Amino acid sequence: MRFFLSGLIAVIFLNILLVQPVRAQSYGLGFYSHEVVQDKRTTLDLGLNNVAPKDNLDVSFDLAFIPNRQIYFGYILRLVGDDKQNIDLVYDNQANTKHLKIIIGEKLSKISFNIDEKILFNNWNRLRILIDFKNDKLTVFAGKEAFSEAGVHLKQSTNYKLLFGANAYRQYQTTDLPPFKLRDVKVAQNNKLLSWWPLSEWQGDVVPETVNQNNGLVTNPLWIKSRHRNWQVEQELTVAGNASLAFDPATETVYIITTDSLITYSVNSTAPLKNNAYSSGKQLLIPGDQALFSNNKLYYLFIDQKAIATYSINDQKWDKSFKNLRAETNNGHLNKFFCQTDTSIYTIGGYGQLVYKDSVKQYKLNTAAWQNIKPKGDTFTPRYMAGLGTNAMGDTAYIIGGYGSASGQQIVNPRNLYDMMRFDVKTKTFKKLFNIEVKNEDFVFANSLIINSKSRTYYGLIFPQHKFNSNLQLIQGSLDKPTYKLVGDTIPYLFHDVNAYADIYYCPRSSKFLTVTLFKQNEQTRVKIYSLLSPPEPLETPVLSYGGVNYIWWISGLLVVGLSAAAGITISRKKKKNEASRSLLVPVVPEIVNHTPEQKEQSIEADHDNKLNSNKNAIFLFGDLQLFTAEGQEITKYFTPLLKELFLIIVLYSIKLGRGVSSEKLNEILWFDKSEKSARNNRSVNIAKLKSLLDKMGHCHLSKDTGYWKIEIDYNEIMVDYHTYLNIVSNKSKLNKQKIIQLTHITQRGNFLSNIEYEWLDAFKSEVSNEIIDSYIQFSSTITIADDAEFLIKLANDIFYFDPVNEDAMIMKCKALSYLGKHSLAKNTFESFSKEYKVIYGEGFERDFHSILE
């Protein structure tokens, strides 16, 4: 009872701590379409059973199209009743002006209509299909319009499939679908809601249903909410020499200026990346100098020379070039902006030659002349690495944060700055507005701020500048008060002063943020472009540090670990105690689901069994730890004890939690007794060794793209028994005899990592044992003794392997043996159980043999 109460309290606490709102401001399911190969396209499979066949069926959902795709053609919905009639909503942009059409059976109905493209691509559109069986009439409602057809020979059904996008369901399978977004799928009869799938998940293949827990399944999902939370890599490229950035919000184009060409990334183009060589020849660039796009022109700022080069997009050439330039700028990480009211470019701050700058410079485009401004008002502390943004006209600039000193001298008390300053172009005046609060780690800003004058808010990117392996974090703050919040996930960012640069831009038409990072190394610059849909989702849980790690996940993880370990200590007497001691962790790895006939599914499962028995392309975690290459070579012997533990930490957190593990967590487990610098060095060396070993496997690599160390595995090529185990136990309602046999094949190698003992591993081991027992017991409840007594005996023996005093297994085995007439074996089973029970609990089992057979 003590464990049950503590577990219950912890569950409630975790639910409060980790719960996400069902309806966030941005949610839905996106569908991959013709832009990917057929087996990567999205399928949403929803089902309805035991529906009143004579009553009207009302199906509704929100629909929008994903912009900037080449092909818009195919099935949006196939509604299949009792496998005897299909009602389809399709989009056909080939034939005529009415692209949305209804198909009933194999015939086009008379229902066809359009939704204005601007509305279809930019807004959610509520569609409703009303199936009137009594009057044999079908009606589609789109906005305020209704389209109907009667006499369509509707067939009454009690079971329905709602197949959105691609599907492989019997004769209704298709791979043609337009790129669209979907949310709030509802089915009703007689004004009573039967099912509602909000599609408000962050991740996963299971689609929760809110009325009757009639969950659906999705393959290859593009969860919209995650695109408002998680930055997505759009482009990665490497250019020779130095590079600089500029952005045109009108065309949503990023300009990457290199020494020999202009590279453009256009958000709204089906071929977004283009490279145009300069007709004017090579352009020498200075590390740390900057560029901007304004007044429909591209400008490169040679700050030290007080010069500006202008680029002609049409002629593909620069009007100026310089030779014998400095190795790096004397004004690195300055801020710049364009003011429309006086058609001038302004620069503020910067750093060079061990001096922080407070200078304000103006370049008048009309006269092509620079001048130094002596600002009035409040003191602007010399700094660099601040964030700057302006209002629409550019006559009011906001500058926040940075790093500098009051004297400007690097040697005299440099520090992080957190003041928000406003610069008025007309009066040339600085005004200090407030200081923002440092919640934990010191930080500076990426170069730009996104200003929303209407809402009086700003967006900016912050990062800890004292780290090489840093992370960018988006924040949303107020222009009127010192409040801000973290939004979106972190972006990995390598920072090394003038060799690194980061900027953020906003695309008003596409409603998305772009972050671009530059990192120069070995005379090359790596460019990465990330995107995040707007509005960005806030971090829902309290965060103890923004610097690449959301520590609340680790707090909650430790709680779960503690509870799992406690649950594993006690083996309960009764079923209720068994249930109370089971692990609180729920596997996030979805079940592998096939929508093919049963024979094909059994064939696939048999293939899994073959791989389990093969010593090629395999990672075994049950029994002895073993890794086999495609050639069958075992590479486990190359793992030192430290490398083995490092590998297990990363692979288990990668497979089980889907996210990986932070550097801080690795330090906490493996190098807790070392200084931060020493731990970092040890981690770097061993990570490199582990990468080299994993490269031998193929189809398996170590990454840190999300800010967490994660082992990416192609499970179609490499068999990982722990991953297969999770697929089986994660959805116990889908268990069948074949899966149970497959689970037994996995456990026949031995207990989970049976010869390895680490304190942090105990929770994983306890959970595995509990989940396997739960799976066996739950499946046994679906079999009667008359159906398969021999198999129930086998199940009981498998349970005893993990829990020798499991009461349910003992009763199951005794009853099955008695049913087969093996009464003495049943009595021996009971007596052996009773002896073991007394050894463990110090008291006799309270029931007798005859009572358990009743």
From TrEMBL:
Keyword Oxidoreductase in the entry? The reply is: no
Which spans are transmembrane here?
551-572
Q: Which InterPro entries match?
A: AfsR-DnrI-RedD_regulator, Gal_Oxase/kelch_b-propeller, Kelch-typ_b-propeller
> Which UniProt keyword terms apply here?
Membrane, Transmembrane, Transmembrane helix
Q: Give yes or no: UniProt keyword Disulfide bond.
A: no
Question: What is the protein name stated in its UniProt record?
Answer: Galactose oxidase
